Amino acid sequence: MSSKKPYNCNISALGHYVPEKVIDNKYFENYLDTTDEWITERTGIKERRYLEKDQPTSYAATKAVEELLKNRNMSPDEIELIVLTTVTPDMIYPSTACIIQNNIGAKNCWGFDLIAACSGFIFALYTGAQFIKSGTHKKVIVCGADKMSLIADPDDRNNIVLFGDGAAAFLLEPGEDENYGIIDAVARIDGSGGRNLCQLAGGSLHPASHETVDKKMHFIYQDGRTVFKDAVKGMADVSLEIMKRNNLKSEDVAYLVPHQANHRIIAAIAGRMGVSMDKVMMNIHKYGNTTTASIPLCIYEYWADGKLKKDDNIILSSFGAGYTYGSIYVKWTL
Ligand code: UT7
């Protein structure tokens, strides 16, 4: 971001949605060669939530945005832009942003979907903030929503235990004080890591066919061990870069908000940053990896529980398919 800041960008309201259906680790013990102990120890996940069959990603996203509007006491007509990020859109097109716009009846906005997998929310927040900082928009909604239960192979113990469904949304508005809000961002892509974490079929490279279905190419593929290693390095690098750039020492950080993929990845990053685990936001035990919803869902919960306070310095950090990775420094205002 430029050091010249015509407007600053505050996070001024939050909303979230987690499905009612809870799937605990025992559920998988019933039909897979796995145990609650393995999943808990290797990932930190105890349970996750699943949307029902007739509830697409837009269902969760709409609920999150509706809660946000209620919390801000705001009419949908005031929204100017919806940036929706997901890897499980309702359809390839129209965009899920259009579906949400129609669901909530927002008559004066535009919007689009952004794909950056588990870094989706960081990239969407960085993008949304530009529209506020440039002065062209006054009310921007950034929403992360995913129905991961749909693209994880239920028979693949390497993946199915990791993921869950959920959504969360932030409202961005201009603020008076440039020392608050979204202060800085670092974002990176590295396509050389693309083959390690991907959904091979369904696009123009491998369009849906009997063969792609038979070969399970519509499910998540990942080389877990490689992604684990690369995620620790990538997230720690961008988080340390943003701290250095903003003269933040580990004791200045109120919370590290890491993407919730694996508690061992999170602990390794916190260690490299010198941030103690009591300053790390975590809800992976309840929801697993919800991809684009993971970071905003975590922030929502800490804020709703009164654990996040005005003036707190928080460092958001993510790593995902692409590879995509990034970090955002926020000085909290709510
Ligand atoms: O959000 C996007 C980014 N994604 C991530 O950050 C995920 C990164 N990777 C990880 O979190 C971890 O690598 C996993 C959780 C996916 C796997 O944990 P791991 O400790 O790296 O296990 P591993 O892949 O080294 O596998 C160890 C063993 C293997 O058995 P063998 O080959 O040694 O006989 C796996 O087959 O654990 C086995 N295993 C399981 N065992 C019981 C894999 N999944 C399970 C399971 N239950 N659910």
What is the element layout, followed by pairings?
Elements: E1 8-17, E2 21-24, H1 25-29, H2 36-43, E3 47-50, H3 57-72, E4 81-85, H4 96-104, E5 110-114, H5 120-133, E6 140-147, E7 165-175, E8 181-189, E9 197-198, H6 210-214, E10 221-222, H7 224-245, E11 255-258, H8 263-273, H9 284-287, H10 294-304, E12 313-320, E13 324-331
Parallel strand pairs: 4-5, 4-6, 11-12
Antiparallel strand pairs: 1-7, 2-3, 6-7, 8-13, 9-10, 12-13
Helix pairs in contact: 3-4, 7-8
The protein binds oxa(dethia)-CoA.
Your description of this structure?
With 334 residues, the chain is α/β, with parallel strands linked by helices. The protein has 2 domains: 8-179, 3-Layer(aba) Sandwich (Peroxisomal Thiolase, Chain A, domain 1), CATH 3.40.47.10; 182-331, 3-Layer(aba) Sandwich (Peroxisomal Thiolase, Chain A, domain 1), CATH 3.40.47. 31% of the residues lie in helices and 24% in strands. The chain has helices at 25-29, 36-43, 57-72, 96-104, 120-133, 210-214, 224-245, 263-273, 284-287, 294-304, and strands at 8-17, 21-24, 47-50, 81-85, 110-114, 140-147, 165-175, 181-189, 197-198, 221-222, 255-258, 313-320, 324-331. The strands form 4 sheets. Strands 1-7-6-4-5 form a 5-stranded mixed beta sheet, with helices on both faces. Helix 3 (57-72) packs across helix 4 and helix 7 (224-245) packs parallel to helix 8. The longest helix is centred in the C-terminal third of the chain and has 22 residues, at 224-245. The two termini are 23 Å apart. Residues 34, 38-39, 42-43, 118, 157-158, 161, 224-225, 227-228, 231, 261-262, 265, 289, 320 line the site of oxa(dethia)-CoA.
